[in-house]
């Protein structure tokens, strides 16, 4: 299979797969034209080594994803993008940080997709309150914000433990790649997608 097909199957970015091949973690061979190809056996062996779910064995229980964004149109867009994932998701949207915190406490989502610029309790305050609760350590957080070019916001999101930071307008494929990586196996989110974290790539 191609590196692109492997990336989609693993739920990570194309550059991540190429980095695994170049480091020797994932075995691949080159075609006469210089393109990488990966056998299914080698990919399955890699997934077993990394503790990743083998294709066709993904758990069927939908992962819970909470979207927190004060713009209803943005919430609708994010939900529509997430519904394109090739694995089951249970998606809920709320429109302010306070309601988001209440929903997190009651629903315990597996992942949070969070805006930063919101009235009242903004996204950074939501992040800080989440990270103050050790019971929420396993919840992955993806920040999607129009403040992507603000270095102070990037640093604050990183310090608060965001798994990734993506700019608005949203690049749908990147969001799906990151969500897939984080939900497939926790090890992939911080390690396998390292160059994608906080860089929005």
Structure in words:
- There is one protein chain.
- This protein has helices at 3-10, 14-23, 40-50, 72-82, 97-107, 123-131, 151-159, 172-184, 188-192, and strands at 29-30, 36-37, 63-68, 89-94, 111-114, 140-145, 164-167.
- The protein has a 5-stranded parallel β-sheet, sandwiched between helices. It has a two-stranded antiparallel ribbon with strand order 1-2.
- It folds into 2 domains: 3-50, no CATH class; 63-196, 3-Layer(aba) Sandwich (Rossmann fold).
- α1 crosses α2.
- With 201 residues, the chain is α/β, with parallel strands linked by helices.
- The two termini are 23 Å apart.
- The radius of gyration is 17 Å and the shape is elongated.
Any idea what the CATH architecture of the largest domain is?
3-Layer(aba) Sandwich
CATH topology of the largest domain: Rossmann fold
| Major sheet attributes | 5 strands, parallel
Mean of all residue-level pLDDT scores: 82
Q: Report the structural category.
A: alpha/beta
Low-confidence stretches: 190-201
- The N- to C-terminal Cα distance equals 23 Å
What's the structural domain tally? 2
Shape: elongated
The CATH class of the largest domain: Alpha Beta
Radius of gyration: 17 Å
Measured by DSSP, the beta-strand proportion falls in 5-15%
Report the CATH superfamily of the largest domain.
Response regulator
Helix count, DSSP H or I runs of 4 or more residues: 9
Oligomer: single chain
How are the strands ordered across the major sheet? Answer: 4-3-5-6-7
């Amino acid at each position: 299979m191609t590196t692109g097909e492997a990336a989609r199957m693993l739920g990570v970015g194309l550059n991540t797969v190429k980095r695994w091949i170049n480091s020797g973690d994932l075995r691949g061979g080159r075609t006469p034209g210089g393109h990488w190809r990966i056998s299914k056996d080698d990919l399955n062996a890699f997934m077993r080594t990394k503790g990743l779910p083998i294709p066709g064995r993904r758990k069927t229980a939908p992962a819970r994803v909470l979207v927190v964004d004060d713009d209803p149109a943005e919430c609708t867009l994010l939900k529509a993008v997430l519904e394109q994932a090739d694995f089951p998701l249970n998606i809920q949207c709320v429109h302010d940080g306070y309601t988001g915190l209440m929903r997190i406490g009651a629903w315990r989502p597996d992942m949070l997709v969070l805006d930063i610029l919101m009235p009242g309790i903004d996204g950074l305050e939501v992040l800080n309150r989440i990270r103050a609760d050790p019971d929420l350590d396993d919840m992955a957080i993806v920040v999607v914000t129009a403040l992507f070019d603000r270095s102070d916001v990037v640093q604050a999101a990183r310090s608060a433990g965001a798994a990734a930071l993506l700019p608005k307008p949203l690049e749908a494929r990147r969001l799906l790649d990151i969500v897939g990586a984080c939900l497939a196996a926790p090890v992939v989110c911080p390690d396998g997608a390292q160059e994608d974290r906080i860089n929005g790539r």
